[in-house]
Amino acid sequence: MQPKSQLAGIGFGLLAYGIWGFFPLFFRQLSHISPMDVLSNRAVWACVFVGILLTLRGSWGKVLAVFRTPRQFAMLALAALLVGSNWLMFLWAVAHEQVVASSLGYFLTPLVNVLLGLVVLKEKLNRLEWISVGLAVAGLANEVISLGSLPWVSLFLAATFGTYGLVRKQVPVDALSGLWLETLAMLPVCGIYALWMAQSGHLVFAAQDTSTAAWLVGAGIITALPLMAFAAATQRLDLATVGMLMYINPTMQFATAIWIFGEPLQMARLVSFGLIWLGLGFFSFSMWQKLHRAGDS
């Protein structure tokens, strides 16, 4: 991998995860709207915004090329299903004061990336990486034993976003075209939902006031920007490095949940976080060793 390409990938990753870290603050402004309504508007306005960018760049030829490759479009449709369900769960978590749980899920995502690399890409794990995975499992076990249930919100967010990264990495489509096709693939589901809700008199795409309308349009734009950056990062970096940058997002979400939203943090959950943070520490050290050895060779 070329150093300039890797540096650009890190820059795109920092941009993506930094914006995602502010998402709880942004979407709390829409907590009076149902998560599925917000998701539908996000998909529509993101599709419109990215479509404008494609027009300005004259890049529609790349989109048409994907339509002529059914396998690529099917992979992007799968990516859309994964990231759309991830959005929906995150919106539910923000609306129901579960941002601590969502941050735990995104802390787990790098370790999900490690496991996916092991199982799907046949990557080898060293001793430190196995320790990091073991500590994450111990953290989840503590959640189950102490709190009496699986952390479903956290696990769902980690699994869907980790798998989304893996799928998106294997589709050789540029970031802008890929994102437009992903949001396009979401529109039939959003349209069916809007028609279903209209039967009971609820208009999904009609905002209650000007302020809410502005937030919903902004949701599409702010959805598109980090996803474009993330797709660009995954095309330039290996899965492990993408996972390392992921820490920025959940750290910002965790801080927001505790110090701005005032969500409670039970001691048992703090132990779970501690085990996972320790695992991430081992993982980060392992990645640093790999990069150091690569630089010396």
Structure description:
The chain has 297 residues and is mostly helical. It has one domain. The radius of gyration is 19 Å and the shape is globular. The protein starts with a helix and ends with a helix. The mean pLDDT is 87.
Q: Give the tally of β-strands.
A: 0
- Identify low-pLDDT runs: none
Distance between the first and last residues' Cα: 13 Å
Percent of residues in beta strands?
under 5%
- Gross morphology is globular
Main sheet overview: none
- C-alpha-based Rg, rounded: 19 Å
Structural class: mainly alpha
Mean pLDDT: 87
Tell me the number of helical segments per DSSP (H or I, 4 or more residues long): 13
Order of helices and strands: HHHHHHHHHHHHH
Number of domains: 1
Helix share, percent: over 70%
Sum this structure up briefly.
With 297 residues, the protein is an all-alpha fold. The protein has 13 helices and no strands. Helix 6 (99-119) runs antiparallel to helix 11.
Key words describing this protein structure:
mainly alpha, 297 residues, globular
Topology:
Elements: H1 3-21, H2 23-27, H3 35-57, H4 60-67, H5 70-95, H6 99-119, H7 127-147, H8 152-169, H9 175-198, H10 210-236, H11 239-245, H12 248-260, H13 267-296
Helix pairs in contact: 1-10, 1-12, 3-5, 3-9, 3-10, 5-8, 5-9, 6-7, 6-8, 6-11, 6-12, 6-13, 7-13, 9-10
